[in-house]
Design goal:
The protein is an alpha+beta fold. Helix content is 47%, strand content 10%. The C terminus is likely disordered.
Length: 488
């Protein structure tokens, strides 16, 4: 979008927050870059230039605006709506892979050479993987500086910097303030609890929290997830340790409280919480497209801004999808809770009732199938899935190639279109997954006068592409029991 100068100028002049994260405005006279909705008086058009990422702005010598804080704008919705190399790379960078494994590790996960990855990112984003990761480290550092009382040296390493000097230099370059000056400008607060970070997760309006938090609360696995004091809480398995996230909806943001055993996991935890709640979506574009169908338009108008509830752990969700085949939501939660108690890793939660991390595929690979209270065919499905996940034969993480993952899932015993599409929608993040055999979808279709058979409904749904996953959310909302589990 940053190449469409006329469109960008109009967005800046109207201070349109819908485009925050889509592009960044750099001002040639002040050497400052902003989000489109920056509250200051817009510069003259001839003094504006546009970049596709904060990293590209920083690499070109611009510093972040102190008013609109462009480094904290929602992420571009492109990276969660696409499955190509650049989108997969951006999801991995957001998940902290470059900081942990370097650019060679990023390239290896994508199945390309380092040179190919760098060339593609530079061409589309104006910055390579190191610059993109550096911009992310700067944002993490700013959060820790402003929300904790940690010493600066600890913040430097928690944010992923190799040295305190690199931390100081980056903060000064990006924000035109030293770390101590940033802390002095932040609102005063108490010392806080060690390992606890409180922050606000931005999103593009509108956001309808009912389907997000209602679904997560209704399907919560005891010990791993809970709804408490107006917040969805769950445990997180992270690269350096574990954590607990508490997420509560607010009118203009999601209140997020992260309790981490290792603060180096902060960036990853934020990324996974945003992905769980689909916060980088562009609801105006999605809803505008779905409204073109007269059958869906009233549903969208009644409660716009529905998101797709996703997951913080793709392997966990795949396992839970299998546990949910052919049973009720309550039975699926019961099956999952038994696995958690028997094979999950215990942890302490002083603030609530969370007790375990969901078992890893490696832990579940050792489960005796005879101990599973499910039909023999589904036991085979379960054991085959966890073995594939544990052995690395099946990849469902943010780096996954959606088409390849679908094909591998369909090749497993007991995996039919419903299970594959629900995993594609909730775990892979495919915005165009569709569930024509789902009981809730079929009930909604009947109520709305849409075709009744799965084949005919799929044909009608072609006009909803590429946002069929969002159409599913609107259709489910018409049913009094929106969470239904059908055969694989």
């Amino acid at each position: 979008m940053h190449h469409d100068r006329e469109h960008c100028v109009r967005a800046v002049r109207s201070k349109d927050a819908r485009f925050d994260g889509w592009f960044f405005t750099a001002v040639l006279t002040t050497r400052i870059y902003c989000r489109p909705s920056c509250p200051v008086v817009p510069p003259k058009p001839e003094n504006m230039t546009f970049y596709p990422s904060a990293a590209a702005c920083q690499q070109a010598g611009f510093r972040a605006c102190k008013r609109c804080r462009p480094d904290t704008s929602p992420g571009s919705p492109e990276w969660n709506a696409r499955a190509d190399l650049v989108a997969r790379a951006m999801r991995l960078i957001a998940d902290g892979v470059v900081d942990r494994e370097g650019v060679p590790g990023l390239a290896a996960r994508l199945g390309y050479s380092t040179r190919q990855v760098e060339r593609q990112l530079l061409a589309e984003l104006g910055a390579g993987p190191l610059a993109l990761a550096r911009a992310q480290r700067a944002q993490t550092a700013r959060l820790l500086i402003e929300t904790t009382a940690l010493p600066m040296a600890e913040i430097a390493f928690a944010a992923g910097f190799a040295s305190v000097r690199a931390f100081n230099d980056t903060v000064r370059e990006v924000f035109a303030l030293s770390p101590s000056e940033l802390r002095a400008r932040a609102p005063k607060s108490g010392a806080g609890t060690p390992g606890v970070v409180t922050l606000r997760l931005p999103f593009r309006a509108p956001l309808n929290p009912s389907n997000l938090f209602g679904h997560l609360a209704a399907t919560a696995v005891p010990g791993v997830e809970e709804w408490r004091d107006g917040a969805y809480r769950r445990t997180l398995r992270l690269p350096y340790g574990h954590g607990i996230a508490a997420l509560a909806p607010r009118p203009d943001h999601i209140a997020c409280r992260l309790t981490l055993s290792d603060l180096r996991d902060l960036t990853v935890a934020i990324s996974r919480c945003r992905r769980l709640l689909d916060l980088d979506a562009d609801p105006v574009a999605v809803d505008g497209h779905l409204r073109t169908d007269p059958s869906l338009a009233p549903l969208v108008d009644r409660a716009p801004g529905r998101r797709v509830p996703r997951t913080v752990d793709e392997a966990e969700f795949a396992v839970r999808a299998v546990l949910g085949q052919q049973v009720s939501t309550a039975a699926a939660r019961t099956h999952a809770a038994r696995l958690v108690t028997a094979h999950g890793k215990p942890l302490d939660d002083p603030e609530g009732g969370l007790t375990h991390l969901f078992p890893s595929p490696e832990a579940l690979a050792g489960v005796d199938p005879e101990t599973l209270a499910m039909p023999r065919t589904r036991r085979t499905t379960f054991t085959t899935l966890v073995r594939e996940l544990a052995d690395g034969g099946l990849h469902l993480g943010v780096e996954a190639d959606w088409a390849e993952a679908r094909a591998r899932l369909l090749a497993l015993p007991g995996f039919g279109p419903w299970t594959v599409d629900v995993i594609a929608m909730r775990a892979l993040g495919d915005p165009d997954a569709f569930l024509p055999t789902d009981l809730g979808i079929r009930r909604a279709a009947k109520e709305l006068g849409l075709p009744a058979t799965p084949a005919a409904l799929t044909a009608r749904a072609q006009m909803w592409r590429p946002w069929r996953s969002y159409a599913v959310q609107y259709l489910w909302a018409t049913d009094s029991h929106p969470i239904n589990f059908l055969p694989a």
